[in-house]
Design goal:
By secondary structure, the chain is of the alpha+beta class. It has two domains: about 70 residues, Nuclear Transport Factor 2, Chain: A (Roll), CATH 3.10.450; about 140 residues, Glutaredoxin (3-Layer(aba) Sandwich), CATH 3.40.30. It has nine helices and eleven strands. The strands form three sheets. The protein has a five-stranded mixed β-sheet with strand order 7-9-8-10-11. A four-stranded antiparallel β-sheet has the order 1-2-3-4, covered by helices on one side. It has a two-stranded antiparallel sheet with strand order 5-6. Helix 6 packs antiparallel against helix 7. The N and C termini lie far apart (about 45 Å).
């Protein structure tokens, strides 16, 4: 399979003069006609000469021949310092860093040590009904003890019409949001409440930043770490002594 992909790319890169090259907007129209449900953000020249990149919501990319007849759905890598590096991550990392540093803390649920004891901050996209999210939440006191501030954003994986969405909105709308979130993550019932809230906005932001599951822990430099991690290991990864 790898050799087929490599051969296809060689044909695209070196045989592009033998096909009728379409404009990026024409490629976008072809995709939308074939799959109207695909959220195509833009079509651009890719990092590979002679190949188009169709950017989809969530940071995913389809790589198209210039005539729009063939495409590859998969991860593109580059080699830097003798290592394979995801091009998708290279693109999303600065976007995550920029977007998350711009978030208003008033719209987040922040669990933090005293300001003069903060050594690092992480943003966590979380789902109340996610088992690993609940396990990670149990580490909050240990995170804070290590000097790590945790800023929660909502990401109900089942969508915006799910019970998980209702629960997380109720937590955000509670008189004591952090306490309500902690109770809900412990499996306790909390009163259903509705108010102006940032849950939907955070959910779509997560998709834009490449979040596909929870917990999604994002470091200050924009690195995304998927899944549970305990306080000692997170401190090690963050370079905290």
């Amino acid at each position: 399979m790898k050799f087929i992909i490599i051969a296809w790319m060689l044909v695209c890169c070196f045989g592009s003069f033998n096909v009728h090259a379409l404009a990026p907007e024409e490629i976008k129209q072809i995709i939308q006609k074939a799959r109207p449900d695909l959220p195509v953000i833009a079509v651009r020249e890719s990092e590979i000469s002679g190949v188009y990149a169709a950017e989809l919501q969530g940071g995913y990319t389809l790589y198209f021949s210039r005539d729009g007849k063939y495409f590859i759905s998969g991860e593109l890598y580059t080699i830097e310092n003798n290592q394979f590096v995801s091009v998708r991550e290279l693109r999303l990392k600065p976007l995550r860093r920029e977007q998350l540093h711009q978030q208003d803390d008033a719209e987040l649920l922040v669990f933090s040590p005293p300001e003069d004891q903060i050594k690092a901050t992480v943003w966590v996209f979380t789902d109340i009904d996610c088992g690993w999210c609940r396990k990670l939440h149990q580490e909050i006191p240990a995170f804070n003890k290590q000097g790590i501030a945790v800023k929660y954003l909502a990401y109900p994986q089942a969508g915006l019409s799910s019970d998980s969405y209702t629960k997380v909105v109720s937590a955000w709308c509670s008189d004591s949001p952090k306490e309500a979130l902690t109770r809900a993550k412990a499996g306790q019932s909390i009163p259903v409440k509705v108010c102006p809230n940032p849950v939907a906005k955070q959910y779509y932001l997560g998709k834009e930043l490449g979040v596909s599951g929870t917990p999604a822990v994002i470091y200050e430099d924009g690195t995304l770490q998927s899944g549970y991690v305990n306080a000692v290991e997170l401190a090690r990864r963050l370079g905290i002594n």
